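Worked example 2:
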Amino acid sequence: MVTFDRISHDPAKMNGQPCIRGMRLTVRRVLEALGRYPDRHQLFAEYPELDEEDIRQVLAFAAANLDDKLLPLRPAG
């Protein structure tokens, strides 16, 4: 079982969205930033409060919370 000790949920903060270490920085914002700044040096320059373990947990948290759905394939033509 994976633990996410850097991901916090507080209904009184950011509408209960998952955040990084209690900060007002949501998992979603970090994921968007990862897409915008593929170079980690740029990402850390923009968000100096983050570190590599935060990024690892954000990615693992996002993957753990996606629904995998099996869709039936339609027969070929």
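The chain has a mean pLDDT of 91. Residues 7-64 form a domain with the Arc Repressor Mutant, subunit A fold (CATH 1.10.10.10).
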